[in-house]
Amino acid sequence: MSFNAVFEALSHPVRRRILALLKSGPKSAGDLANGFDLSKPTMSVHFAKLRDAGLVEVERRGTSLIYSLNASVLEEALAGVLDLGQFGSGTKGDT
Amino acid sequence: MSFNAVFEALSHPVRRRILALLKSGPKSAGDLANGFDLSKPTMSVHFAKLRDAGLVEVERRGTSLIYSLNASVLEEALAGVLDLGQFGSGTKGDT
DNA sequence: CATCTAATTAGACCATAATCTAAATAATGG
DNA sequence: CCATTATTTAGATTATGGTCTAATTAGATG
């Protein structure tokens, strides 16, 4: 898990909104893209950055690619910058 | 508090490291800059982005500028992207 | 296999970010 | 007020990021 890639990915509002959409469940690239006023290729680049960061996973279903949120990577990265403590009161298995 | 500015600020490793240094207490611009292999002006630009995001506050002491961490802005931004829930188990005064 | 749909990759272009050196501002101390 | 220390601002340069259209890949279907 690369902190750098994760926070780079989080730095763009479109990508944060993609993550927010995926919180309610997996969605196809096309379905996700339809919620934005951007070309499909542009959206595809955003998907790629989220994939590279490990924030989403992708699975092929027929001709569609289904994206789903990888919440643990997101949580670990955010916890990392917070240094645990004030938020995670033993919720996760931290020492 | 601008989510955009906060996550833009967090996207650069130098700025995340500055925040980490400030966790142990306020420090002058010069002291902070000495921990990096970058020119003072470059560091100053990084400070400015952190200021703009509200992640740090600055106070003048003599000829020095003392930076300190604004933890609440950091926490709120990270909680925002997590949508609360899995981390903050009522630790903060969330509804 | 030709074709259709879904999505990505390639290539180009423009905007923004990161960095540097040099100059400017701000406070302190003779 | 001039010199010194601390830091920022200005201006230029280079690298990276976001976006588009056009072309490509991958799977499904007649």
Structure description:
Two copies of one chain form a homodimer. Chain A has 95 residues and is of the alpha+beta class. Chain A is built from five helices and three strands. Chain A has helices at residues 3-10, 13-22, 29-34, 40-52, 71-82; strands at residues 27-28, 56-61, 64-69. Chain A has a three-stranded antiparallel beta sheet with strand order 1-3-2. In chain A, a hairpin with a 2-residue loop joins β2 (56-61) and β3 (64-69). In chain A, α1 runs antiparallel to α4. The longest helix of chain A is centred in the middle third of the chain and has 13 residues, at 40-52. The two termini of chain A are 19 Å apart. The relative contact order of chain A is 0.19. Mean pLDDT of chain A is 90; it is low at 86-95.
Contiguous runs where pLDDT drops below 50 for at least 5 residues of chain A: 86-95
Strand content of chain A: 5-15%
Question: What is the share of helical residues of chain A?
Answer: 40-55%
Largest contact between chains: A-B, 24 and 25 residues
**How would you classify the quaternary structure?**
homodimer
Q: How many distinct helices of chain A?
A: 5
> What sort of overall outline of chain A do the alpha carbons produce when their principal axes are compared?
globular
Which class best fits the helix and strand makeup of chain A? alpha+beta
Q: How many distinct beta strands of chain A? A: 3
Please state how the strands of the largest beta sheet of chain A are arranged side by side: 1-3-2
Terminal residue distance of chain A: 19 Å
What pattern of helices and strands is seen along the backbone of chain A?
Answer: HHEHHEEH
Residue-averaged pLDDT of chain A, rounded? 90
Task: Give a quick account of the main beta sheet of chain A: strands, pairing sense, barrel closure.
Answer: 3 strands, antiparallel
Over all CA atoms, what is the radius of gyration of chain A? 14 Å
